[in-house]
Please model this.
Amino acid sequence: MIVILLGPPGVGKGTQGKILCEALGLSHLSTGDLLRAARREGTELGQQAQAFMDRGELVPDGVIVGRVREKLEELGPDAGVVFDGFPRTVPQAEALDRALLDIARKVDRVIVMTADDAVLVRRISGRRSCSSCGTIYNVFTSPPAQEGACDTCGSELTHRKDDAPETVQNRREVYRELTEPLVGHYERAPGTPVVTVDGDQAVDDVQTALRSAVSR
Model:
């Protein structure tokens, strides 16, 4: 099964996608995580993506599609996947459709997570990430046991540049302009159900709604 999670920055796609994958035995494919890993490793792709991510801009399609293709090949043609943060534009969706067609696969479900802007801003402004292992926390909703330190590896937590207030506003505008049209793209695609889930609920309630959406 291939599932795509859509929704604005801060709606909880990363947290919920990982929980969903653990429950259903799927691979969580976050392009943000893939690019940050490439950045930490100092690869050419990571260096290319760095400037765009710091400004809250979308990484060019050629870079992101190439990284996704690499990961799909690594996982194998039969792997179940939850895409989180990809595709972000209609051209990316079309590129993904072609990549899946090459391996006789297709998108089985599209889930759109929603929440009010005020909720999203609060979530993003409170987000902190581990400088070593990449674990994400939120000082308001899911803080670490010790302030400023990762529960997993003890490394320092940082506030990413792409979570700064001015960058957040830019990311929201980019989402509305370029990513929201994806909903129409998939609604027009035959055999691809599109389901909306309210992301402004308790984590367990959102997860229950997501699993129900996947099983429809």
Remarks:
- The beta strands are 2-6, 27-30, 81-84, 109-114, 127-130, 136-138, 157-158, 194-198.
- The chain has a mean pLDDT of 86.
- The longest strand covers residues 109-114.
